[in-house]
Amino acid sequence: MSQVMDEIEECVPALRRYARALTHDPDRADDLVQDSLERAIRKRGLWQPSGSVRSWVFRILLNVHRNELRRLRRAFTPVSLEALPGGEPAGLDVQPGRLALAETARAMQALPAEQREVLLLVAVEEMSYAEAAAVLSIPLGTLMSRLARARAALRHMTETGAPKLRAVK
Amino acid sequence: MSSEEHNITPHDLHAYADGLLDGPARAAVEAYLAQNPAAADEVEGWKRQNETLRALYGHVAAEPVPAHLNVYRVERESRIKAMRWSRMAAAAVILLGLGTAAGWYGRGSFAAGVPAQVALVDEAMEAHRVYSGEVAHPVEVWAGEKDHLQTWLSKRLARTLAVPDLKAAGLDLVGGRLLPAASGPAAQFMYEDDAGHRVTLYIIPAQEGRETSFRYASLDRLEAFFWTDETISCALVGDLPRARLQEIATQAYKQLG
Question: Does B9 touch chain A (CB under 8 A)?
């Protein structure tokens, strides 16, 4: 039991990174991680040794995140991207290519959620396609087509400039 | 073109960009890209995207993990939370019984009203348990500084609070304190009778300004009367007979209203 706890603990830095990239909001991201940890700890007896603890806790985090988005969507009207403050999101301290980073950050927020979830698992969390598909509970083929669409959309948005960004529904 | 090159799929190109290929598979993609500048350009773009995304978000995993996200601490705290929930559920059962008896169950406000009231009673009872048995520091501000107590807590709750005088019910003011409630600041006034029985009055700013009549809850030998007027929600808690507590609550209600 405490071995599972230790393995969950090892995932926390990566969970924070993924949550931050999904939400672009440090406070909401850590709330999301905390909720996910609570749920994982409560359900750790249900964890199946057939998969990795990492893909299991990432799957929990995504479920918590999607539930929260559904709740927010009911409670608030979505804000268009144009209404968001410009510049890069908080927490960036990278000097070279600041503009490209800021542009990519904005483009990431404009991506459909399902494409953003896939691209971040592959590019930032560096998961294998099989593990990412397991986290998202989708077939490998679906994962690959979302990944290809995410990359094409991101490329299109960053190469044609920010004014062409469209608000996501 | 060799037959191997014909077999290069988009899957292979993505896997190559993501560094998931090695050995012959990797060499085959490299050979293909050398012959296909458009594909090479696209794959190069994907690799740049990966690098940009890692530059954007990678630093978060290197930050020290905040103490409240330590898994053992989360585990401890969710156990405490689960205990609070089971207590609140017990209080809710009592409230449900009351609501039904009062014919209040049919009203549309029932579902919305109950959780806030349950939280109020739960917090008030918990605060009573913690402080009523305290010998050295039952209050932050003693009755000798009643005017200061009244000004201070009125300011913190952003409501005009008149500390009720319950001498007619045989109770002397001990003092009061500021407490953190789920919804913000809360005030607690403590009273004591000749026999040393303590009664506490717990007050939070009213959430939706919907007035309610007196209601009653009982849990673990503690009794509580609670109500909401236009600006505040109150709960009077004590280990006293119900009729006596109701008499005290009525006096407090009149002076606070």
Answer: no
ipTM above 0.85 for this complex: no
User: Would you place residue B226 in the very low, low, confident or very high pLDDT band (cuts 50, 70, 90)?
Assistant: confident
pLDDT tens string B123-156: 899 999 999 998 889 999 999 999 999 999 999 9
Q: Percentage of chain B surpassing pLDDT 70?
A: 84
Looking at residue B188, the DSSP 8-state letter turns out to be: E
A37 vs B74: CB contact, 8 Å cut-off? yes
Asked if residue A115 lies in contact with residue B76, where contact means CB atoms within 8 angstroms, the answer is no
Closest CA to A11 of A60, A46, A84, A77: A60
What pLDDT is stored for residue A85 in this prediction?
43
Residue A124 and residue B65: Cβ atoms within 8 Å?
A: no
Among B89, B98, B90, B88, CA closest to B216: B98
Burial of A133 (0-12, 13-18, 19+ CB in 10 A): buried
- Residues with pLDDT less than 50, chain A: 76-96, 161-169
DSSP string computed for A106-138 = HHHHHS-HHHHHHHHHHHTS---HHHHHHHHT-
Pick from B45, B53, B63: which is nearest to A155 by CB? B45
Contacts of B38 (CB under 8 A, 6+ apart): none
**Mean pLDDT, to the nearest integer, of B159-183?**
92
**What is the residue-averaged pLDDT of chain B?**
85
Our CA dihedral for B59, B64, B68, B74, rounded to 10 degrees, sits at 90
Say whether pLDDT at B157 is over 90: yes
Contact B65 A122 (CB under 8 A): no
**Residue B158 · residue B205 · CB < 8 Å:** yes
Q: Which residues of chain A lie closer than 8 angstroms to B79, CB-CB?
A: none
Q: Which two tokens stand for residue B77?
A: 């705290």
Task: Answer for the pair A52, B84: CB distance below 8 angstroms, yes or no.
Answer: no
Quick one: tokens of B21? Answer: 């290929």
Residue A84 has a pLDDT of 42
Cβ–Cβ of A41/B75 closer than 8 Å?
yes
Contact state of B72 with A144 under an 8 Å Cβ cutoff: no
Which residue of A13, A94, A120 is in closest CB contact with B65? Answer: A13
CB pair distance less than 8 Å for A119 and B63: no
Residues of B in contact with A101 (CB under 8 A): 52, 55-56
Task: Show residues of chain B in contact with A160, CB under 8 Å.
Answer: none
